[in-house]
Amino acid sequence: MEKVHVKEAKGKLGVLTVGIGAVATTFMAGTLIARKGMGVPVGSITQLATMRLGKREENRFPKIKDVVPLADMEDIVFGGWDIFEDDAYEAAKHAEVLKDEDLNKVKDELVAIKPMKAVFDQQFVKRLHGTWVKSGKTKWELMEQVKEDIEDFKKKNNCDRIIVIWCGSTEVFTPMSEVHKSLAAFEKGLRENHKDLAPSNIYAYAAVSMGIPYINGAPNLTVDIPAMWELAAKTSTPICGKDFKTGQTMLKTVLAPMFKTRMLGLNGWFSTNILGNRDGEVLDDPGSFKTKEESKLSVIGNILQPELYKELYGEVYHKVRINYYPPRKDNKEGWDNIDLFGWLGYPMQIKVDFLCRDSILAAPLCLDLVLFTDLAKRAGMSGIQDWLSFYFKSPMHEPAKIAEHDLFIQYVKLKNTLRKIINEETVDFID
Predict the structure, then answer these.
(1) pLDDT of residue 399
(2) What backbone phi and psi angles, to 5 degrees, belong to 249?
(3) Do residues 222 and 166 lie in contact, with contact meaning Cβ atoms separated by under 8 Å?
(4) Positive or negative CA dihedral for 214, 220, 225, 231?
(5) Residue 1 has what pLDDT?
(6) Which of 141, 149, 383, 400 has its CA 20 to 30 A from that of 207?
(7) What does DSSP say about strands 76-82 and 12-18: parallel, antiparallel, or unpaired?
(8) What would the pLDDT profile of 288-301 be if each residue is shown by its tens digit?
(9) Average pLDDT, the chain
């Protein structure tokens, strides 16, 4: 096995979030609270999970953070962009995810996180109206402004490394077109204000062109295009996405493998969601919903492989609905009705009602992804980080490969990659 050399995690790690709303402020506040020892980062694999090393009889199960050279939470410095001028404390109060008693533990730190002006285009987010936005004649000029922001933040905060993570809204559905298919066409499109290049594309190009890892937490195209794969290869930069896997889809990636493993049939799967906050408001627009729908619908078919198991999954009816319901705020409800069948075709049903908290589930994913992509960069890894598929609804993958959606297979791949990085033998569980 070729030995992996990982650069030491020296100095400060700047974490720039695109969007300082519910997810970002919950991530920021939770990290700041946890590193003060005033709260537990529940849901974070980097902080809480163990990893088996060696054979079972060796009984070695250290915490991941104790054996993998991750950056320390103490070294994280937060910043970001938003289309509204509220500082992180004001934004968190508006989001109403965390209670005042928790926000006040880190109020001074949150007040100090003031957003930089954002790249905004009404065409891509119809339901929001940004007031704290950049202006420029071309998308290339806006991209240059983002690069200046990054450089200024890095210098001002004495950061050694930077990670950029999209925590913003879902953009309207944009099919891949010629402008996305090569780096030359993409750069030409930025200079000529091509209509298919979204704000997320601008942030991604700015970061990746600087060799800065980019994490796409929404179902937008962003870095899941040939142009960005080409740029990531050119600058030796890790990229990953897309769309944080938190509530309803996470359950699908657990239940669908169970059906397939036990060879139980499936007739239909109806999913509906109600949620408030800006995320719900944005997804109330058909264009943005279409982008989210594509991400959510891809899971079941990939796991069940209907082309191989026609008698079990050849005619599955899969429907997804998202409904904006302001009173629910960030406390989303995901309801699923599953019609399955067993021995001799006898019908059964499963009904799931997941009253989850979207940002509470997403925040630990943000922390893990930031620390893991920083690790990947220091380990000399670049391009699509498919070992991080565990965290995404619609995981990016090499064009020649098939995406893996099974949560448990994804988890094994995640841990085996970590084992390789620290030059330990991978685990196949047949020992």
Answers:
(1) 83
(2) -70, -35
(3) yes
(4) negative
(5) 59
(6) 400
(7) parallel
(8) 667 656 666 678 98
(9) 94
Helix (H, G, I), strand (E, B) or coil at 384: strand
Highest CATH level, class, for 12-244+360-421: alpha beta
Q: Which of 167, 170, 13 shows the shortest CA–CA distance to 88?
A: 167
Query: Tokens in use for 290?
Result: 């279409």
Residue in this structure with the two tokens 């899941």, named with its chain if needed: 224
Eight-state DSSP code of residue 86: -
- Region 248-355: CATH code: 3.30.360.10
Compute the distance between CA of residue 25 and CA of residue 14 in angstroms, rounded to an integer: 15
Per-domain residue ranges of the chain: 12-244+360-421, 248-355
- What span, in angstroms and rounded, lies between the C-alpha atoms of 246 and 364? 10
Rounded Cα–Cα distance for residues 143 and 193 (Å): 11
Name the one residue in this structure whose structure tokens are 């995810």. 97
Q: What does the buried/exposed string (b/e) look like for 312-346 if buried means 16 or more CB atoms within 10 Å of the residue's CB? A: bbeebebebebebeeebbbbbbbbbebbbeeeeee
Strands 347-355 and 333-341, bridge-based pairing: antiparallel
Cβ neighbours of residue 66 under 8 Å, at least 6 residues apart? none
**Bridge partner residues of 12 (DSSP):** 159
Q: Are 423 and 3 in contact (CB under 8 A)?
A: yes
Residue-wise pLDDT for 9-37, tens only, equals 999 999 999 999 999 999 999 999 999 99
Question: What pLDDT band is residue 400 in, cutting at 50, 70 and 90?
Answer: confident
The percent of residues above 90 in pLDDT, for the chain, comes to 81
Q: Which helix (H) or strand (E) holds 12?
A: strand 12-18
The pLDDT score that the predictor gives to residue 3 is 86
Residue type, 75: D
Whether the predicted model's global pTM rises above the 0.85 cut: yes
Distance CA 25, CA 78 (A): 10
Asked if 21 and 83 count as a contact pair (C-beta separation under 8 A), the reply is: no
pLDDT grade for 218, boundaries at 50, 70 and 90: very high
